[in-house]
Amino acid sequence: MKILVINCGSSSCKFQLFNMDNGDVLAKGNAERIGIDGKLTYKREGKEDVVIETAIPDHQVAVTLILGQLADPEVGVIADVKEIDAIGHRVLHAGMHYSESIVVNEDVKRVVRECFDLGPLHNPANLIGIEACEAAMPGTPNVAVFDTAFHQTMPQKAFMYGLPYEYYEKYQIRRYGFHGTSHRYVSKRVCEFLGKDPKDLKVITCHLGNGSSFAAVDGGKCVDTSMGLTPLAGILMGTRTGDIDPAIVPIIQKKEGLTPDEMDTLMNKKSGVMGISGVSSDFRDLEAAAKSGNEKAQLALDMFAYQGTKIIGSYAAAMGGVDVIVFTAGVGENTWFMREDMCKPLEFMGVKIDPSVNTGLRGKEAIISTPDSKVTVCVIPTNEELAIALDTMELVSK
Ligand code: AMP
């Protein structure tokens, strides 16, 4: 079975074509700068990348271009797009509607549309991606895999904000959480890796990348997560503030004369470790700057580690314990000193990192705690695309 995974952003369309019989990625790439000018990068294992600079006015054109490459007589990996059995779409927000992936029908599209307010940058692009695939491959099933779905098992005490209850009823203002596909994938994968039943474990998953979030997973079900109504909440991130005192928002708006949209941009695009350091949102640049004596870069790294420690500690308290801590995504998989810095203060609750394994470890499944550590700490590389492809295969095989 061949499954195409599509991840549409506001001006991009990432794709991967999987051969599910052996898990191979046949081709992958990204159509970027959609609506601006247009560039398609097409990659195959062991072959030279194909880069096409051409006008990509909208997502429909992007999907057509991608399918054209996949079935191209010279560089293609399939003879005909009819070989694609189904398409799995990453969709940001399903509000309170779906707690699992679902085959797309008119109702699903209505829900994705109803949630435009909750995911204004992503949901419209996700729907365009779905409709573009429907038009280009009529009759081929599309599956929506939601970033919010895994977190729908949170109890109400975890997802409510201390606002008047009417705003929850009128506007569905509550914590939803994101990166759900990644948290679900690594929390399940770590149990397989350790040979344990998810039902028996309390797991804290730390997805640390450009956007970062944590999830408390008790018996395989998410009970809390650090992102909120939007992906701005939780730990400070590459360019996002993370949690701040909400009163800061009107204070800065008044002092700087900013509109709500300008304030939103400041908190999403100009803050986080980038805003603190003034250097970069990339942890490799921060590490290099800190090593050469840049104190603000060091402060940004220290803040990231400190806030992460606090979230892990609070989730251990919330679950009444923790058996496994998992690090994943760009920073979690690669920046070994961040794993060490986040875990070091947790020694009091039995977390002991083994430097002989952790130091320098990048992008590989491993246990990085000592054999006598009460809590098992692991690195599990995330694979959101594979998780989407697996959900899609399962749903269309029913
Ligand atoms: P992601 O959002 O998961 O793609 O992660 C992006 C972040 O991961 C960036 O801030 C990078 O600094 C970091 N990152 C990615 N690759 C590496 C690497 N090889 N070594 C250190 N950090 C990395």
Describe this structure in words.
- The protein is α/β, with parallel strands linked by helices.
- The protein is 38% helix and 19% strand.
- The chain has helices at residues 59-70, 106-114, 123-136, 156-159, 165-171, 180-194, 248-256, 260-269, 272-277, 283-291, 295-319, 329-334, 336-343, 355-358, 384-397, and strands at 2-8, 13-19, 24-32, 39-43, 50-53, 86-91, 102-103, 142-146, 202-208, 212-218, 221-225, 324-328, 366-367, 376-379.
- The strands form 2 sheets. Strands 5-4-3-2-1-6-8-7 form an 8-stranded mixed beta sheet, with helices on both faces.
- Helix 1 packs across helix 3 and helix 11 (295-319) crosses helix 13.
- It is globular and about 60 Å long.
- The model has no long low-confidence stretch (mean pLDDT 96).
- The structure holds adenosine monophosphate (AMP).
- Residues 209-210, 238, 282-284, 329-331, 334-335, 362 line the site of adenosine monophosphate.
How is the topology of this model organized?
Elements: E1 2-8, E2 13-19, E3 24-32, E4 39-43, E5 50-53, H1 59-70, E6 86-91, E7 102-103, H2 106-114, H3 123-136, E8 142-146, H4 156-159, H5 165-171, H6 180-194, E9 202-208, E10 212-218, E11 221-225, H7 248-256, H8 260-269, H9 272-277, H10 283-291, H11 295-319, E12 324-328, H12 329-334, H13 336-343, H14 355-358, E13 366-367, E14 376-379, H15 384-397
Parallel strand pairs: 1-6, 6-8, 9-12, 12-14
Antiparallel strand pairs: 1-2, 2-3, 3-4, 4-5, 7-8, 9-10, 10-11, 13-14
